[in-house]
Amino acid sequence: MRLGLVCLCFLLFGWAAAVAQEAGTWSGTVDQPGAGSYGVTMTLDGRGGGTTSYPSLSCGGTLSGGPGTYFEQITSNRAVPGGTSGCIDGNISVAVSGNTMSWSWSGSWEGQSYTASATLGRVGGAAPSAGCDTCGRALSSDVAAGVSSSGLLRTYVQQSQAKYANCTRREADRCTSDCWSINLANLLSNCEQFDDAGHRACVNQTIVGANGTCQ
Questions:
Q1: What does 130-156 look like in DSSP terms, one character per residue?
Q2: C-alpha separations of 182 from 19, 207, 213 in Å
Q3: N or C terminus: which one in the chain shows less Cβ crowding within 10 Å?
Q4: How far apart are alpha carbons 202 and 57 in whole angstroms?
Q5: Global pTM?
Q6: Could you report the per-residue pLDDT of 22-63, keeping only the tens digit for each?
Q7: What's the CATH fold of domain 24-122?
Q8: Domain spans, the chain
Q9: Residues 193-202: what's their mean pLDDT?
């Protein structure tokens, strides 16, 4: 039974890490074969949903089912059978690397398949400074040492988080979109809900995931 709880912890961590990494507003230019190019703004709410807007097409929609792959339901200027304009429902797949998102869409209408792709940038997501990376790497090393040696891991992690907060305070708000902030500092708090064994497993998995993404 304990193993099942730990496995559930890993699953919850993976989902939370993915939606946290994708959360925010993204914007760019879509290239659709046969239809040309047009702008898109997508906002992901960090809970597996969000919205899309295509201003030049007067279209917009809602998203569900994330992270990674979202179902887009058009709610503004929706195409109708026999019509000559409008937008259609589809599936959107995303992959985030820092402040850049690879975006692809696919859908079908009246027996024909359509695809589109784009590279989106995080709105307001200027690259964090080197100081943010230094603080994040210090947090990772600090917490990893606690996992290996500290019997009072919960208190150790809390102290490490406090040191990270003090370190990033010198960077104003620049570290909020830093990889370490999204994938480590923010997610460590999610581990507090588990008992000691589950907490240790969650913290360790969080470090592994953050190092794999941010190193």
A1: HHHHHHHHHHHHHHHHHHHH-S-HHHH
A2: 10, 12, 10
A3: N
A4: 44
A5: 0.56
A6: 888 898 999 999 888 999 999 988 778 899 999 889 999 999
A7: Lipocalin (2.40.128)
A8: 24-122, 128-214
A9: 87
